[in-house]
Structure formats: structure tokens, C-alpha cells
Amino acid sequence: MKKIPIHGEYMTLGQLLKAADVIASGGEAKIFLHSYQVLVNGEPDDRRGRKLYPKDMVEIEGFGKIQLV
After folding, report:
1. 0.85 exceeded by pTM
2. Which of 3, 2, 34 is CA-nearest to residue 14?
3. All domains of the chain in start order, with CATH
4. Measuring CA to CA, which residue among 10, 45, 14, 11 is closest to residue 28?
5. 19-26 contacts, C-beta under 8 A, 24 or more apart
6. pLDDT tens per residue, the chain (69 residues)?
């Protein structure tokens, strides 16, 4: 499980994908989220603007789990 630090109040799902090196640029987020299943705290979500906070858990199909700290 990877741990990604949040700098500020929150991080968006698109920013997380880039920070975790799942995508190369923010422009790829929308296409990626429609191609792969992403679970945020156990529930499916495909909104790149979804706000994530410390202690949220994100599971990405084929990439594993990421916890925000």
C-alpha cells in the first residue's frame, strides 16, 4: 500500500492519480477514470474532482491501494 501526503486541506482524485504516478498528466485523468474502476473508501467513483482528505483510502484496479496522509 502506497501512502501519499496531502499538502493543504484536500487533494482531488485527479491530483492523486498524478502524484501516485498512475497517469503522466492531469489531462489523462478523465479517460483513465472511465477505463479503470476506482474505489474511494470502498465505493466506486469516477469524478476527477472528487475531494480526498487525510485517511481516505483509494483502491485503483491494477494499481493497488493508496492511503492519504
Report:
1. yes
2. 34
3. 2-68 (3.10.290.10)
4. 14
5. 20/60, 20/63, 20/66, 22/60, 22/63
6. 999 999 999 999 999 999 999 999 988 999 999 999 999 999 999 999 999 999 999 999 999 999 999
